[in-house]
UniProtKB/TrEMBL annotation:
Annotated source species: Paenibacillus antri
UniProtKB keywords: Membrane, Transmembrane, Transmembrane helix
Region of interest: Disordered: 120-142
Entry keyword annotation includes Membrane: yes
InterPro entries in UniProt: DUF1980, DUF1980_C, DUF1980_N, UPF0703_membrane_permease
Entry keyword annotation includes Transmembrane helix: yes
Limits of the DUF1980 domain: 7-114, 155-290
Protein name listed in UniProt: TIGR03943 family protein
Organism domain of life: Bacteria
Transmembrane segments: 6-23, 44-63
Length: 302
């Protein structure tokens, strides 16, 4: 029993110190969304406490004293079963310590596929009721704020929650797809795509391509995370540029251009006709996260 307590102490202490290491080198963000980090950090404390208890029990047992709380579960006498059990526990620790901490990129997109429209079939979304038919409206420049807001409202609960954000975007030139409101901004643009056609836009992300794309096309993409890396989903806009061949996959770029439309598998999607594509440094935070406060107040530009 002593050896089992020792192994349990090593496993618990190993996971605890690994979490502490990820926090110290600022790599926890590769695996966990910011809103969940506090729980992971607290788990490191709990795991270390468990390791101390197991080590104390081992020390007491080695001196011939038995700590009996009446709730002990004797381990299996099978060597192979124990080897398999502890092997499964130690394996993620070995992989975590010896493999590099990297942000998800094109390799994952190849497996999951890229989401080019927030209303694309298969994309999780709030259930939507049938949208009323819209009538042509004056240009945004000729409308006051309240009139402009009403022009975006359709009576559809899902679309209307993005209407005020769409109004604020309409007033920007160029519209900037900020990473702290990335999902909300691309959703607003996608929902009201016909209203944004011809508008100037600026967006940053990594370059991605599929075999179906033309030589002058690529996607400027970002990985979106809600809880952890297991639910990471790639989103992006299709880009058309004569400079497309200059940028390899996973190269971080800033695209400035004009919003247009394209057909992608029978779905109308956003296509940016690029005026400028420039390489940039990778961001400190590789992923983007839901930010529903952006629906009420778009963060000010830097």
């Amino acid at each position: 029993m002593t050896i089992h307590r020792l192994l349990r102490a090593f496993v618990a202490a190993g996971f605890s110190t690994y979490i502490i290491y990820l926090v110290k080198v600022d790599a926890l963000q590769y695996y966990i969304a910011p809103r969940m980090e506090i729980f992971v950090k607290l788990s490191a404390i709990v795991l270390m406490m468990f390791a101390v208890v197991q080590a104390f029990s081992m020390f007491v047992g080695a001196r011939g004293r038995h700590v009996d709380c009446g709730c002990d579960h004797p381990p299996s006498p099978s060597l192979w079963r124990n080897a398999l059990t502890y092997g499964l526990l130690f394996s993620p620790l070995v992989l975590g310590y010896f493999l590099p901490d990297l942000a998800l990129g094109s390799d994952l997109v190849d497996k999951k596929g890229i989401v080019l429209s927030r209303s694309e079939p298969g994309t999780p979304a709030i259930p939507r009721e049938e949208t009323p038919v819209r009538t042509p409206l004056p240009s945004s420049e000729s409308l006051q704020d309240d009139q402009l807001l009403r022009s975006f409202q359709t009576g559809d609960l899902y679309e209307d929650q993005y209407a005020s954000l769409a109004v604020r975007l309409m007033k920007q030139d160029p519209m900037v797809v900020r990473e702290d409101a990335y999902l909300e901004i691309i959703t607003a643009i996608d929902l009201f795509l016909n209203r944004f056609v011809g508008k100037s836009v600026q967006i940053e992300g990594f370059a991605y391509r599929t075999e179906e794309m033309a030589a002058d096309e690529f996607v400027v993409a970002r990985m979106a995370m809600d809880c952890c890396s297991a639910d990471a989903t790639p989103y992006g806009f299709l880009v058309q540029s004569q400079e497309a061949s200059r940028f390899a996959e996973d190269t971080w770029i800033r695209v400035t251009g004009t919003i247009g439309t394209a057909d992608w598998g029978g779905v109308e999607i956003v296509k940016i006709e690029a005026a400028e594509v420039a390489g940039i440094d990778s961001p400190e935070t590789p992923y983007v996260y839901p930010n529903y406060e952006a629906l009420d107040e778009l963060p000010a530009r830097d």
